[in-house]
Amino acid sequence: MTFSALPVIASIPSPPISSFQLGPLTIHFYALCILTGIVVATLLTNHRLTRRGAEPWVVIDIALLAVPLAIIVARLYHVFTHFDFYFAEGREWWNPFERDAIWNVWDGGIAIYGSLIGGAIGAWLGCKWTGIRFWTFADALAPGLLLAQAIGRFGNWFNQELFGLPTDLPWGLEISPDNPAFPPGLADDTLFHPTFAYEVIWNVLGVLVLLWAGRRFRLQWGRLFGLYLVWYSAGRVVWESIRIDPSDIILGLRTNVWAAIFGVVLGLVIMIVQKRRHPGYEPSPYVPGREWSPEVAVQSQNTDDFVDVSAPPEPEAIETAATSKGISE
């Protein structure tokens, strides 16, 4: 692939640093962006699940399985779709002190479609564990997941990676010519399409669309998650088509373009099939027999005593409570 230098009109600067030292630790902004996205997605998903009637913070139990599996499979997906980069002759893929080691996630290389696969497996296991319907959880997660992906993309900005073709548009992205990803043969002031910014804008807009569509059309049984797949993947088809970072090519298309096309198709299939299978509304966020209800409450005057609020109170308890408030007749 060859490029020609384009005149600089205006630009989006890239951060001069991608990490900082905190004592003996190196803190990478890439990791902070991902962690912030995970926290935001967890908070929003908890709010949405709780409103549906699920136990508060049950999302944590599911996330304990979903998040680690999402990260592991995301890394494996990236490594095996960039096989030559990690396993070519001379590459020390096993050495954690080398940039091209398969373990060095802090230098980038977390594939979102891999995270969706690993996260889906972990979420399914977590839902089995907690009794939450898998599709209920997926629908509750969808807006938060898209928002988390928008936040995580700023990590690519800090790492100066995954940018697009050269451009003379006023929002062109500056990339340091010392960056290993800077294409050879270009002028040092060449600007590039800020694909991270395109995806941030597309994802934030998608969050608003999902929240509106979910409420307007009462999308349940996984149909809101299907819409998420369609929206996100449609955007990725475009961004992937203008990115210039190395990628395996299959039938003339980057692997992630194929993954995005598959995502659109899968999302449409989920929406159509689930609409036909479940024309009504979900009766509960829990599978039958696993329903949760707030059966106990803590007395404020004694945290060691619990009151079963599911059973009717004894007459003596009612009389005592009324007398203590001065309303006994």
TrEMBL record:
The keyword Ribonucleoprotein does not apply. Pathway: Protein modification; lipoprotein biosynthesis (diacylglyceryl transfer). A 1,2-diacyl-sn-glycero-3-phospho-(1'-sn-glycerol) binds at R153. Keywords: Cell membrane, Membrane, Transferase, Transmembrane, Transmembrane helix. GO terms for cellular component: plasma membrane. Residues 306-329 are annotated as: Disordered. Its EC number is 2.5.1.145. GO terms for biological process: lipoprotein biosynthetic process. The keyword Membrane applies. It is a multi-pass membrane protein. The chain crosses the membrane at residues 27-45, 57-77, 110-127, 134-152, 196-214, 221-239, 251-273. It is found in: Cell membrane. One of its GO terms (molecular function) is phosphatidylglycerol-prolipoprotein diacylglyceryl transferase activity. It holds the Pfam family LGT. NCBIfam families: lgt. Catalyzes the transfer of the diacylglyceryl group from phosphatidylglycerol to the sulfhydryl group of the N-terminal cysteine of a prolipoprotein, the first step in the formation of mature lipoproteins. Belongs to the Lgt family. This is Phosphatidylglycerol--prolipoprotein diacylglyceryl transferase. It comes from Microbacterium invictum. The lineage of its organism: Bacteria, Bacillati, Actinomycetota, Actinomycetes, Micrococcales.
